[in-house]
Fold this sequence. Notes:
The chain has about 80 residues and is mostly helical. Helices cover about 55% and strands about 0% of the residues.
Amino acid sequence: MKTTLDLDDELVKRAKAYAARERKSLTALIEEGLRLRLRRRFSARSEAVDLPVFRGGRGFAAGIDPGSNRSIYDAADDGA
Length: 80
C-alpha cells in the first residue's frame, strides 16, 4: 500500500543512513519498526504472566520493626 507521511527531516536523514548501513530500504526499516512496536504493544496486553506469590507465614524475625527501614537494613547486615 502506498501512503504519504509527514516526517521530521532530521529523523528521515538518520533513518536513511541507518537503513543504508543495514543494507535495507527506508521502507523496510519503517515496516520493521512498525511491526516491532505493534507486536510489543499487543503482546504485552495479551500475554498472561504468572507471578510468584509468597504464602508462607513467619513474617519478620524477632526484634525487627517492619515500619523502620533502619531496623530492616540493620537486620540484613547482620544476616538475620
